[in-house]
Design brief:
Structural class: alpha/beta
Radius of gyration: 21 Å
Largest sheet: 8 strands, parallel
Order of helices and strands: EEEHEHEHEHEHEHEHHHEHHHH
CATH topology of the largest domain: TIM Barrel
Number of domains: 2
Distance between the termini: 34 Å
Strand order of the largest sheet: 9-8-7-6-5-4-3-10
CATH architecture of the largest domain: Alpha-Beta Barrel
Length: 345
């Protein structure tokens, strides 16, 4: 395992993060405490130090398991948790981005984790009801108090994140250093705005669902996709996803690894600081995912996967990359300009 700086911070985190949403059996499909411990130990043995949980995961059991597992060497571990999602139904004080929920949720997470500080505190999702200034000032207060070291944001539009960090920078508050998004060969829509923003603002990206909800593991084919997948997706979408999955299987057979390892490696090799979240329901699955550390895709393999999964970035990206527009904005000198700044045309 190698280590990367967490975006604009100086924090050293492992190049894979262990997602612990499966720690606990309250949701009907997770892992028991002994199995969770085995996965934690395997991640530690591989050199991992970056753990990702949330106050909502398995009704708080995930945080309690993590707290128990790190207790013997707390300061070694980089522990990330989140707030926003409800922890008490039908009570508006127990959900949302607002300061009251933020402070209450942070104290509750500290108690479940049995620690006096959180390394990275994520806003779990944007609620569109709380002013940006309230969120950023509240997070800065948590950092100033020592209860939180760094802050990040998950599942939020790029314009909100950009505005929040601009406000934080101008007011001397703690900015977001990380961005958590859904991203895989199956879903590359983050490439339109979220990923270019992350590179421009030096945010570390921790993608979730890097195996495309299981489609990229190689266990599904045109005749074996699960019924829930059929219900959620149209025929054209299913066909495209399975075409991508077949390309992943083909590359895996060439290399002599598993499709999951190819899918994770593709995410790891994307531009910028990208730290995939790997999670599993058992030790065998996790060991397979950790095997991605030994896989390096070559230029031809990356290009083949790029081609089969390519998306339309839409307006204004397509408009701004049109040769006629480039000619107009550069006065015919576009090919003579060496542009080192983030972003692609």
């Amino acid at each position: 395992m190698k280590y990367r700086l967490l975006g604009r911070s100086g924090l050293r985190v492992s190049e894979l993060a262990l997602g612990t949403m499966t720690f606990g059996e309250e949701w009907g499909w997770g892992a028991s405490m002994p199995e969770s411990r085995r996965m934690f130990d395997a991640f530690a043995e591989a050199g991992g130090n970056f753990l990702d949980t949330a106050n909502r995961y398995t009704e708080g059991t995930s945080e309690r398991f993590v707290g128990d597992f790190i207790a013997s060497d707390r300061d070694h571990w980089i522990v990330a948790t989140k707030y926003t999602l409800w922890t008490r139904r039908e009570d508006p004080s127990f959900s949302g981005n607002h300061r009251k929920n933020m402070m209450r949720a942070c104290e509750a997470s500290l108690e479940r984790l049995a620690t006096d500080y959180i390394d990275l505190y994520w806003v779990h999702a944007w609620d569109f009801t709380t002013r940006t200034e309230e969120v950023m000032r509240g997070l800065d207060d948590l950092v100033s108090s020592g209860k939180v070291l760094y802050v990040g944001i998950s599942d939020t539009p790029a314009w909100v994140v950009s505005r929040a960090n601009t406000i934080a920078d101008f007011r001397g508050w703690s900015p977001f250093v990380g961005l958590q998004i859904r991203y895989s060969l199956i879903d590359r829509t983050a490439e339109a705005d979220l990923l270019p923003m992350a590179r421009a603002l030096d945010l570390a990206v921790t993608p979730w669902s890097v195996l495309g909800a299981g489609v990229l593991t190689g266990k599904y084919s045109r005749g074996s996709q699960p019924e829930e997948g059929r219900a959620k997706e149209g025929a054209a979408r299913r066909e495209r996803n399975l075409e991508i999955a077949e390309a992943v299987v083909s590359v895996a057979e060439e290399i002599g690894c598993t499709p999951s390892q190819v899918a994770i490696s593709w995410v790891r090799q994307q531009e910028g600081v990208v730290i995939p979240l790997v999670g599993a329901r058992n030790l065998s699955q996790l060991r397979d995912n950790l095997g991605a550390l030994d896989v390096e895709l070559d230029a031809d393999q990356l290009e083949r996967l790029e081609e089969v999964s390519r998306i339309d970035l839409g307006f204004p990206h397509n408009f701004l990359s049109d040769p006629n527009i480039l000619d107009i904005v550069s006065g015919g000198t576009w090919e003579q300009i060496s542009n080192h700044r983030p972003g692609k045309v």
